[in-house]
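for the recovery benchmark. tokens below, seq after
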């Protein structure tokens, strides 16, 4: 199958477009710091991971910048919204773009998409750019698609990464 045929087949798949729309909605909510609405996009038992090793898939055994289950994700949201932490008081303004969607896996219940994310932030009178390869596993078997897993592989993850004050 040619690349053009493969891409056209992906876009005609009834599960792909809603999954991409969910990922774009997630980016919109994060840029607006609507963290409680963002939390409602996640399936029960989901996880949010930002690994240090860009090649690992063994998140449980490796050191990660972020490894959040439901409980930890909600604790992180509480810190970001409470106003009592440095991450909340000096939070960056962000604009992110996600593109280059590629279907990695598809079955009746889930779709796994990889994409590229470019995030531009502004904090303390400085502008910065972060790039990442992102993988979302989206659960499709409910009333609405939900995020089951999100893995953000920062392109500079093995170097010094400053505290962000926002969610990737």
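predicted aa per position
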């Amino acid at each position: 199958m040619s690349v053009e045929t493969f891409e056209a087949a992906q876009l005609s798949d009834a599960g792909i477009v809603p999954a991409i729309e969910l990922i774009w909605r997630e980016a919109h909510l994060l840029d607006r710091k609507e963290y409680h609405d963002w939390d409602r996009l996640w399936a029960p038992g989901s996880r949010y991971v930002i690994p240090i090793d860009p090649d690992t898939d063994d998140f449980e055994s490796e050191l990660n910048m972020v490894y959040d289950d439901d409980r930890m994700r909600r604790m992180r949201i509480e810190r970001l919204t409470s106003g009592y932490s440095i991450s909340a008081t000096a939070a960056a303004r962000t604009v992110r773009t996600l593109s280059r969607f590629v279907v990695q896996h598809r079955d009746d219940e889930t779709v796994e998409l990889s994409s590229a994310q470019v995030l531009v932030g502004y904090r303390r009178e400085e502008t910065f750019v972060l790039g990442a390869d992102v993988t979302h596993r989206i659960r499709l078997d409910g009333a609405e698609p939900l995020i089951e897993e999100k893995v953000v592989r920062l392109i500079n993850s093995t170097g010094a990464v400053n505290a962000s004050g926002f969610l990737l």
